[in-house]
Amino acid sequence: MSTSEQRKCARIPARLQLFSPRSQKCQRPPTALPRVRLLPALVILTQIAFGFAGAVVAQTPKAAKAAPPPVYVVHISVDGLRPAYLQQLISAGQAPNFAKLKAEGAWTFNARTDYDITVTLPNHVSMLTGRPIYNKYGLSNSGHRWTLNSTPPAGTTLHSNAGYYVASAFDVAHDNGYSTGLYASKDKFVLFRDSYNAANGALDVTGVDNGRNKIDVYVNNDQNSTAMFSTFLTNMSAAPTNYTFVHFTDPDTAGHASGWGNPAYLATITSIDAKLGQLFGLIAGSSLLAGNTTIILGADHGGVGTDHSNATLWENYVIEMMLWGQNIPANTDLYSLNGAATTNPGATGRPDYALGSGQPIRNGDGGNCALRRLGLTATIPGSSINNLVNACQVVTLPTTPTPTPVPPTATPTPTPVPPTATPTPTPVPSTATPTPTPVPSTATPTPTPVPSTATPTPTPVPSTATPTPTPVPPTATPTPTPVLPTATPTNTPVPPTATPTATPVPPTATSTNTPVPPTPTPTPIPTGLPSGWTAIAIGSPGLAGSTVFAGSTWTISGGGTDIWGTSDKFRYTYQTASGDMTIIARVTSVQNTNEWAKAGVMFRNGTAANAKFAMVIVRPDGQVAFQWRTSTGGSANWTGALAGGTARPKWVKLTRSGNVFRAYYSTATGTPSSWTQVGNGVTVTMATPKVGLAVTSHNNGVVCAATFTDVSVSGGVLSKVFPDSLAPLLWDSGN
């Protein structure tokens, strides 16, 4: 072989040999010694020097990016999806597409979250990096160390927080030539965009140089899963990304607002079920996706009451994990399929990460599972959660690669914008033709977009000969591939379709990809509060929060910095009163957004941020405090000591006699027969005060969810005890 031929053969990426073997000329002589690429060797040595996590080193430019193979993974996280309620809906026939996922794939309703923390963002970092939160397994630098559960400060990345580079599934997929996408419905997911963009992603030392931006498509519609998923369907129909992570916020949002298991919570699961039906329809109707797509579905945590922050409660750490796709046996228990690699921990077992202990299936297994299903044997660098080795077998790649369009990588955080001429972009697979296959040839007229070999943007070729019902992008829009703007990196709204829960097309010839029609859209929740009550955000907190009344339970989510100092920011649900009065409530839960998050009862001299007040509150740890402000704009004060201990729940009572206010608490399991006073009476002059329920998160970037029962207001102009009998769910968003 000549020197020039040797150089040419050396440039052929080893990865591409999986589906494009080297020519005979490029085969090495049997006696040739194996060649070692100097740069990867240096990188490995540097990683060892810098610890378990590895480090970024400089590299020389490499060849252009190769077309990825036609294999796809859709990795779904349903925020706050508790298995017990999912099983309930499946059994009742109200979640047919979740049932399909279970019947045609492998599943468990007994997987686990991270051992130490059961909140959203840290667990999603584990899903994508394969790392526990804190160092485990006796290895230094093995945790990802991210504990914040709110939108990260500007300029903060996973790497700057940990002190070393924290690689992800996006890194491995991208560096091996696969296209990637992240679709989220919470602002805080900007953490991943900023950690893996062109400035902060690691240099690519695998094969050809695919750049440092590890996420090709980034879409984030805060608290709007419908818009987010509409964009996802549009993009995956036009130019599917090989590894795509999709996050649905809805169950978590409803759980905090109205309680896990509440009708509003269950309605979000049926809504996501309908979206799964659309995904099944998309896969069945695409020759690229059909037979080549794996779905991995899990959750970041469960929930109980209106909270999920206590990592020792099984209701919070027990989650589901479901796999669906090629060669995954139907209706199979995931623990049985995975064999000795994992150990079922029992109904409420909570194993830690100790060496030698039988590990359960965790949400952190999803990232490395996705890589196997992409046909890769590489694992996420630095990952130590990699237990689904048997269930997530390496998929066999197709022998003939189809050049899937790859979104441009020039924009660090490209947000796709669907074509404005097509209001309902959800693809509808053809019922007349069993497989509406995109034909990669411009010689045969076909209604399906044909990827161009001359340009990375596929040009649609409208059909004039075959009246197939496969959707054709309108002629007014010459390019169906999403446009990736640079001006608006996130939260590009997508108009919802005319039918929020589009019914997928009946099954095609591939039985394993048969979509199940979704259930109808749930009836909207009525709005309003009980007569005489008002709910507002006082002091313009960062998040307004919400107030829900169902039966005898109030669920109030309040934001704000605090009720303290000379001005307050919190959520207040109140009625106007006069004269001598008493308000009583049982505070059953307070989300731990800060040790001084507060939920309690209050008299307030108006709704100004600096108004006079008296209140008795319960902290997340169950302790009670009596606080007040005696002059408008004056400094708040308190008794100087916490009371009541940590026993929960707590009853609180606040009385007004003239202008003297007295605070009490009780730990009784039933209606209190006696009360313990907190401090002494305090004089606060009020003419016509507001009386009600107050909640502050003591953290302006999040809301604190608190629940109250047995609320009663007596004396003055009102006398109201809320009944224990069930009443229609009432909602006031306060926004």
Can you characterise this structure?
The chain has 735 residues and is α+β, with helices and mostly antiparallel strands. The protein folds into two domains: 72-513, Alkaline Phosphatase, subunit A (3-Layer(aba) Sandwich), CATH 3.40.720; 534-732, Jelly Rolls, CATH 2.60.120. The chain is built from 14 helices and 25 strands. The strands form three sheets. Strands 10, 11, 14, 19, 20, 21, 23, 24 and 25 form a nine-stranded antiparallel sheet that branches. Strands 4-3-5-1-6-7-2-8 form an eight-stranded mixed sheet, sandwiched between helices. Strands 9, 12, 13, 15, 16, 17, 18 and 22 form an eight-stranded antiparallel sheet that branches. Strand 23 and strand 24 form a beta hairpin. The model is unreliable at 1-63, 400-527 and 717-735 (pLDDT under 50).
What secondary-structure arrangement, pairings included, does this model have?
Elements: H1 3-10, H2 38-50, E1 72-78, H3 83-91, H4 96-103, E2 106-112, H5 120-129, H6 158-162, H7 169-175, E3 180-184, H8 190-195, E4 217-220, H9 225-238, E5 243-248, H10 250-258, H11 263-284, E6 293-298, H12 314-317, E7 318-324, E8 332-333, H13 334-338, H14 366-373, E9 534-538, E10 546-550, E11 553-558, E12 562-564, E13 567-576, E14 581-590, E15 598-604, E16 613-618, E17 624-629, E18 637-638, E19 650-657, E20 660-666, E21 676-683, E22 690-696, E23 704-715, E24 720-721, E25 730-732
Parallel strand pairs: 1-5, 1-6, 2-8, 3-4, 3-5
Antiparallel strand pairs: 2-7, 6-7, 9-13, 10-11, 10-25, 11-23, 12-13, 13-22, 14-19, 14-23, 15-16, 15-22, 16-17, 17-18, 19-20, 20-21, 23-24
